[in-house]
Predict the structure.
Amino acid sequence: MNFYRMSLIILSAFLLMFGCAKEAKIEITSGLDACHTCNMNINTLNQAAGMVVGQDFLTYDSPKCLLRDIESLPDSFTLRNSDIYMADYESSELISAESIVMVLTDHVPTVMNGRVVCFSSAEKAAAFVKHDDEIITDWVGFQTLRGTPDLTVEVTLSHYELVPNLIEANKGDLLVVRVHSTSTQQGLQLSVRGYEEVEPVELTADNEYTDIRLLLTKPGAGFPIVDQSGHSYGMIRVAGAHTEEEAQL
């Protein structure tokens, strides 16, 4: 474990155990605050980000650096979306990850080549988009598309079944299922039932790989991998504790 990650874990534990009652101040000051990941001064406020850890507000010069920091936290550390903030590209106002709308783009300059800008509403994001390859998504989608995978599993599609047909992972993992197609039907699309927020993936030509990326936010004994007709090719089993809301479903 490197010094940087150890210092973040120690800071998190210290603040949670010994922090005083005052709340973290949710603000970033240009030229004064620095990025907690790369230590660069934050000068572009409309691309900045931050997160609450205990009674401290950690600042970042881009959502990319924020994501890398979150990925370094131990699995036992609980971070709510309401503790995560990103700046609106138009106003620089810090918006909670619960409602932020993100645009993945290669068409504007971005801090640390983060290739992402954020907006407080879907309408603002839609008005910004000018190119077909720009993607409008949310915080979970950003983690899914730009995060570092925790687990990559290669499977083969043959005779209407995935081999292996059971994939086991843990809640919170960013999972990549690499599907090697040997008998692709024209236009075959795969999706994961129970994770409807993940767009269906169309398989490529024979003997090529197609990736299904999903952030495992929900535990369950089995989430079927299905095609557009509903046929099941395999299952993803996700271990982990249910939230109170999930337990009631």
